[in-house]
# Entry
Amino acid sequence: MLELLQFISYLLTLYIYVLIAMAVMSWLIAFRILRTDHPAVRMVIELLYRLTEPVLRPIRKAMPDLGGIDISPVIVILIIIFIQSVVLPNVARAFA
# Structure
């Protein structure tokens, strides 16, 4: 059971990196450093969008409008850190 919880923690850490990559990619596009008409860039954007949007969309809907600032990735990262530091250790103690 501990190995499964460690694997879940690893996947959550990996998802944090995906969220950070999506945020950086959106900044690079907003500042016109990356061109979205390039096929490789478009493919990476589509992949990151498909991985992050199902999690970020409900949080964006629940949050008030902050103008051009999107803090939903920060909220998801905080939730993941809470799961990793509070929930998973308590589940591990329950099964140990």
About this structure: The two ends are 8 Å apart (CA to CA).
